[in-house]
Amino acid sequence: MIDTHCHLTDKKFASDRDAVISRAREAGVKRMICVLTEFAPEDISLFNDLISRDGIWGAAGCHPHEADGYEKIKGILPGLLENKKIVALGEIGLDYHYDNSPREIQIDVFEKQLQMAKEKKLPVIVHCREAGDDCAAVLKNFRDVKTLLHCFSGDSAQLEHWLGQGYFVSFAGPITFKNAGALRETALKMPLGRLLLETDAPYLAPQPVRGKRNEPAYVSHNYDQFARLKVVKKEDLIASLSLNVKEFFGI
Ligand code: NI
């Protein structure tokens, strides 16, 4: 299995980070993509250490929550992305649920980073919350950038739109939540050839451990849920997702 999106540098892992990584490996999560969203020097050095390890790759980008701090990040980001273990730019996008940064700044920073991804020939991981129309409008101008919609929580119409654009779509813990019948119904329409699974740890712990700190080992629950939903064997799901990871991230 692979956890395509976890925040291993998060302070919630400060006391037992190495144990978290070992537990993931013991649970069969052989690969992880660590997503950096905070750019203090100590975060960056921890990130570089983590992605230097076997089985851990990285992604880095200015999260829409931090868009109004982009001026500080934009000087650091291009150099960071030169590391061959970094396989995507992200997470980037628009979040109109929290509106932590003004929307026009979020859009501007999203566009600038898509341009950077295009120049660096990196795929992007997109965070899109309650901003589907604006995300679609921005992404339309970057057709040649490989795009993954992370932690999908939209409806069927949105899913069909993203798939129609050729994007990959990734699901996290909410697919397992007891009250997520509508999301599971939508996920039934998800073609396995365009699917990725993730934890978004330390957030969004799946059903059996919901409410606790999430960690990469728990991506197994998301695999179980998807295998049940699509009536496929877990090992077949693992095999097809590993082809998708190769196609999208090149690893
Ligand atoms: Ni995330």
Q: What's the number of extended β-strand segments?
A: 8
How many separate domains? Answer: 1
Report low-confidence residues grouped into runs of 5 or more: none
Bound molecules: nickel (II) ion
Assign a percent range to the helix content. 25-40%
Rg over CA atoms, rounded to whole Å, is 17 Å
Task: Please tell me about this protein's structure.
- The chain is an alpha/beta fold and 251 residues long.
- It has one domain (2-249): TIM Barrel (Alpha-Beta Barrel).
- It contains 10 helices and 8 strands.
- It has helices at 17-26, 41-51, 70-73, 77-80, 103-120, 132-139, 156-164, 181-187, 219-230, 234-249; strands at residues 2-6, 31-36, 56-60, 86-95, 124-129, 147-149, 168-171, 195-197.
- The chain has an 8-stranded parallel β-sheet with strand order 1-2-3-4-5-6-7-8.
- The longest helix is centred in the middle third of the chain and has 18 residues, at 103-120.
- It is globular and about 45 Å long.
- It starts with a strand and ends with a helix.
- The mean pLDDT is 97.
- Nickel (II) ion binds at residues 5, 7, 35, 91, 200.
Task: Note the main attributes of this structure.
single chain; 10 helices; 251 residues; globular; binds nickel (II) ion; TIM Barrel; eight-stranded parallel beta sheet; 8 strands; 39% helix; alpha/beta
What's the short story on this structure?
It is built from ten helices and eight strands. The chain is of the alpha/beta class and 251 residues long. Bound molecules: nickel (II) ion.
